Amino acid sequence: MTPTELAPRFFIAVAVIVLFCKLVAWLLGKAGQPPVVSEMLAGVLLGPSLLGLLFPSVQAALFPAPLLPVLYVVGQIGLVLFMFQAGYAFKSHRVTNLAGTAGVVSLAGVTAPLVLGVLLVLATSATAPIRVDGVSLGVTAAFVGVALAITAFPMLARIITERGHAGTRHGSLALASGAIDDLVAWIMLAVVLAFASGRAGPALVTAGGAVLFGLVLWLAGPRVTGALIGSDRLDDRARMLGTTALLFLVAWYTDEIGLYAVFGAFAVGVVMPQTERTDRVIDTLTPIASAVFLPLFFTFSGLRTEFALLGDVRVLLFAAACVTLAIAGKFGACWAAARLRGEPNDVALRVGALMNARGLMQLIALNVGLEAGIVNSSLFTVLVLVALITTLMTTPVLTRLDRHHSKKTSRERIPLATAA
Asked: Is residue 415 domain-resident?
């Protein structure tokens, strides 16, 4: 298919994706689900799991194979801009006196699901068809463990903001723990990919490049972004263009060293100065990215998800075990760690619920694993299911906890009112 033939297919595909995502967001919004959750589900529904199952010719016409790389590349723009916004939001939510507790919660939230995921793969390796030929059992087990250890920090930040929990104890603790989780998980993913390649070179490039990136970011990041935003010789348009160029340059570098574009974008957001000028840049860049570009990534992931594979009893049982261990390892471990650090039960439960959401970040990791050739269609579908279930359950669980807390508070106030 030539570029001239591909262009009209791209335009109609984008129109269908955007409108369908909006419809699903409207429907799920009535249940309190954030837009990103709806876009995840919409992407899966447009793939072979529903549209391709019911109307295979329609799906083939809307999303021909040559179009998929285009959707991936354009979707990366949405990811980069979304993570840039998430990094900037993280900086605005940071609070003090949380480092110790956040570290313990993050350690538990990474270690428990990582170990459980590895053990699950080792225990089911002889039965579940989740390995790619030529990929070692250790690499597959490590990848599943890392995928279960991921927390969707951007999703977590959006839920906290939309529910008005920014600045609360559980909101701040979850944000800090989630950021550490994602940083550790991406580093572990880079290590797994390096082992999968069978060469030490990629691991050394990632490690050395990450150290160099961290030093440059620490020493020069605030100065460069401060000069870009603070210069009176630039208008808002020039600041927006300069920020975009810097963002894509950093995304290119982190992609090249194996840390991936999203990590670089998040880091740039963290070092941006918090001013009204920066807010205007964010407000200019992110709406079109969230509304148009990001749904393309979700659809690209959905087109590679085949829930029909769950018809294989072995895959279905593995999926059920994976979902169970994912929830126990993340929700349960983070709740327990928060309680051990002396947090009240209602705070610990909310932290566990927020940390359990994997959403967008797990989808990114899955696509990376699929592109690297260490994930097959069955494992990809199982882990997409994990991402959907753990993310969809977050809002209902938080709503239930809020109602329980309100009733508890009301009961505690009644004796005081009677005594008065």
From this structure: no
Helix residue ranges per DSSP H, 260-330: 261-271, 276-288, 294-302, 313-327
Tell me whether residue 391 is exposed, middle or buried, using C-beta atoms within 10 angstroms of its C-beta: 0 to 12, 13 to 18, 19 or more: buried
Scored b (16 or more CB within 10 A) or e, 229-249 reads beeeebeeeebbebbbebbbe
How many angstroms separate the CA atoms of 240 and 47, rounded? 35
- Domain annotation covers residue 416: no
Burial class (CB in 10 A: 0-12, 13-18, 19+), 89: buried
Query: 110 lies in a domain?
Result: yes
Give the structural domain span for 259: 3-405
Q: pLDDT, tens digit, for every residue of 316-361?
A: 999 999 999 999 999 999 999 999 998 999 889 999 999 998 877 7
- Cβ atoms of 75 and 300 closer than 8 Å: yes
Structural domains in the chain (count): 1
Taken in order 298, 301, 304, 306, the sign of the CA dihedral is: negative
Note whether residue 360 is domain-resident. Answer: yes
Record the pTM. Answer: 0.82
- 154-189 pLDDT, tens digit each: 677 777 777 777 677 888 888 888 878 877 887 788
Looking up residue 291, the CATH number of its domain turns out to be: 1.20.1530.20
